[in-house]
Amino acid sequence: MAITFEHVGYTYQAGTPMATPALSDISFTVPDHGYLAIIGHTGSGKSTLIQQINALLKPTTGKITVDGFTITPQTTNADLKPLRRHVGMVFQFPESQLFEETIQRDIAFGPQNFGVSEAEANQRALEMLRTVGLDESFAKRSPFELSGGQMRRVAIAGVLAMQPKVLILDEPTAGLDPQGRLEMMTLFNRLHQEQGLTIILVTHQMEDVATYADEVAVMQAGKLLTCATPQEVFSDPAWVQSSDIAVPRAAKFAQRLGERGVKWDQLPLTADQLADQLVRQWPGTGAKHD
């Protein structure tokens, strides 16, 4: 499902003395089945931006197109219900939104709220449990008996049960240990690859940007600085520094090696890319990597 922003602006409490501009003249396109990462410091406008996509916040100016749906300042809430079935949102710490007595009922709640029969909603709940790596034995358990990581998987299963075509992820690995973060990001990438979901990822983890995203949008003070491939964004050290954004650890290490005379075909952004180029440059070392 393609997404297009055309000169979008948003002002909190517009038309009042408390008006606060949050987005200014944002334009970009995410192609169908794309994977976009959005980065920038706290307060740069990332969360405000993603809430425009399913019209939790409607633009003050400009237009947003999500497949066949158009969102403008004049769009009414009655026009938005079909859109919200197609756009799933995973907020930070989504497990805090669990509320039903059993896991199956919690996952089935969203589909039933949109008119899906109880039988079909319950079947979707079982399918989504398997999708997020939990077996059906969890269905009748209370979500509040689970570990934090398991609760997060249940919350994500509830979003997936709506069968969205776009999945918006707002810091989805916050609070997870490295193994938990890897498992979660692998799950989202599998959904992207196997089900063709369009993914919008807000993150401070530059390694995830480099590993998974097709393009990265860099936000600063409510403005879009650029929307380009990770390679294009991170390969310009001067621009990265002036924009006050971090780079992936592998790229930072490669830049230090470059200062010592190592030449790169292109700046490696991931550990695998770094290892591959080092092996090519020194094939006699017998270096291996997994």
Would you give an account of this structure?
This protein folds into 2 domains: 3-245, P-loop containing nucleotide triphosphate hydrolases (Rossmann fold, 3-Layer(aba) Sandwich); 248-290, no CATH class. Helices cover 37% and strands 21% of the residues. The mean pLDDT is 92. It is an alpha/beta fold and 290 residues long. The chain is built from 11 helices and 10 strands. It has helices at 46-50, 81-86, 103-113, 118-131, 148-160, 178-195, 206-212, 230-234, 237-242, 249-259, 271-281; strands at residues 3-12, 20-30, 35-39, 61-66, 69-71, 87-90, 166-170, 198-202, 215-220, 223-228.
CATH class assignment of the largest domain: Alpha Beta
N-to-C SSE series? EEEHEEHEHHHEHEHEEHHHH
Number of strands: 10
CATH architecture of the largest domain: 3-Layer(aba) Sandwich
The major pleated sheet works out as: 6 strands, mixed
Low-confidence stretches: none
Shape: globular
Question: Would you tell me the overall average pLDDT?
Answer: 92
Gyration radius from CA atoms, angstroms: 21 Å
What is the helix tally?
Answer: 11
Biggest sheet: strand arrangement: 6-7-8-3-9-10
Number of domains: 2
CATH topology of the largest domain: Rossmann fold
| Secondary structure: helix percent | 25-40%
Category by helix and strand content: alpha/beta
Strand content: 15-25%
Q: Between the first and last Cα atoms, what is the distance in angstroms?
A: 34 Å
Q: State the assembly state of the protein chains.
A: single chain
